[in-house]
Design a protein that fits this description.
281 residues; alpha/beta; Rossmann fold; seven-stranded mixed β-sheet
Length: 281
C-alpha cells in the first residue's frame, strides 16, 4: 500500500474508532451509526431484521446497541462444538447469541479495534455466564484486517454491519480465509451498494461511521470473496432493512435521503446483504 493510501486508511480507522467509542460510552447511539435511532427501542430493529425474542431475552443488559443490519448467527446455522469468530464484535451482541448455540464444547471469539467496545463486551461476560451457565465467549483487541487469530483455527466467521467500514476490504476477506479451517464457512450481514452513491454522501463522516459511505457494490463483495479463495458464494440482498431505517426516522438516513437525487430513496442505492461462503476442503 502506498504511503498516501496507508495514511488515508488510518484516517478512516481513526474516524470509525472515535465514532464507535462514542457509542460504547453512551455519548452517542445508532443503528450502524452514532445517531439516535429506532425510537430508543433496542429490540425493535433486531426483531425486524430476523432476531428471535428467545435469543434477545438472554442477552446481557446493554449488549444490543442497535448496530446490526442482519442476523449472521441465523445465517450461519451454528452447531454445538464449533469455534466462531465475530469480526467487529462491539458490545458482544452476536457473540452472546452465538455462545449458547455452540454450547460448552464450542468457543466464540469476538475481535474489535475499539478499546471502549472491548471493555463493554468484557464487562458483559459475567452476566452472560450467570444467565446461560456457559463460559465460552472471549474478546480480543485487534483490527479485522490483521486478526489476532491462528491460521485454520475457526469453523465459522460471522460479521454484522462491519466489513464495509474497513478501508481495505480485500485484506479482510483474505484474513477470513486464512483463519478458517478447510471446509469452514462465512456468514456475514453487511451493507452493500446496488449502484454508486452520490459523492456528497460518500464524503459524510457520519455516513461512513453509519456503514453507508464505506459500502461497495454487491459484485465487488463477490469478487473479494472469490479472490480470497472462498467458494460456494451466495449473496442475498435484503432491501427492506434500509426502508426500515427511513421508517424509523433515523436522522442519519434522513440526511442521506435529502442528499439523494430527486425522486430516489435510500434503498435504491443501498441494501442489506447476507453473504454465505466456504473455504475449500
Amino acid at each position: 500500500m502506498a504511503h498516501d493510501e496507508a495514511q488515508s486508511a488510518e484516517q478512516v480507522r481513526k474516524q470509525v474508532r472515535e465514532g464507535y467509542a462514542g457509542i460504547a460510552s453512551g455519548a452517542a447511539q445508532g443503528c450502524c451509526g452514532p445517531t439516535p435511532c429506532c425510537g430508543g427501542d433496542a429490540g425493535g430493529l433486531a426483531t425486524q431484521i430476523g432476531y428471535v425474542e428467545q435469543d434477545l431475552a438472554g442477552l446481557p443488559d446493554g449488549a444490543n446497541m442497535e448496530l446490526s443490519c442482519g442476523n449472521p448467527t441465523a445465517l450461519a446455522s451454528l452447531r454445538p462444538g464449533e469455534v466462531v469468530l465475530d469480526l467487529g464484535s462491539g458490545g458482544g451482541f452476536d457473540c452472546f447469541i452465538a455462545g449458547p448455540k455452540v454450547e460448552a464444547t464450542g468457543r466464540v471469539i469476538g475481535v474489535d479495534m475499539t478499546p471502549e467496545m472491548l471493555s463493554k463486551a468484557r464487562g458483559n461476560i459475567a452476566a452472560y455466564r450467570q444467565r446461560t451457565g456457559f463460559d465460552n465467549v472471549e474478546f480480543r483487541l485487534g483490527e479485522i484486517e490483521h486478526l489476532p487469530v491462528a491460521d485454520s483455527s475457526v469453523d465459522v466467521v460471522i460479521s454484522n454491519c462491519v466489513i464495509n467500514l474497513s478501508p481495505d476490504k480485500p485484506q479482510v476477506w483474505r484474513e477470513m480465509a486464512r483463519v478458517l479451517k478447510p471446509g469452514g464457512r462465512v456468514a456475514v450481514s453487511d451493507l452493500a451498494l446496488l449502484k454508486p452513491l452520490p459523492s456528497e454522501i460518500r464524503e459524510m463522516v457520519a455516513a461512513l461511521v453509519g456503514c453507508i459511505a464505506g459500502a461497495v457494490l454487491v459484485n465487488e463483495t463477490r469478487r473479494f470473496a472469490q479472490e480470497a479463495g472462498l467458494t460456494n458464494i451466495v449473496l442475498t440482498p435484503k432491501a427492506g432493512y434500509v426502508d426500515s431505517m427511513t421508517s424509523f426516522n433515523d436522522p442519519l438516513y434522513q440526511r442521506i435521503v435529502a442528499a439523494l437525487p430527486a425522486g430516489s430513496k435510500a434503498s435504491d442505492f443501498v441494501t442489506s446483504l447476507d453473504v454465505a461462503a466456504r473455504k475449500p476442503l
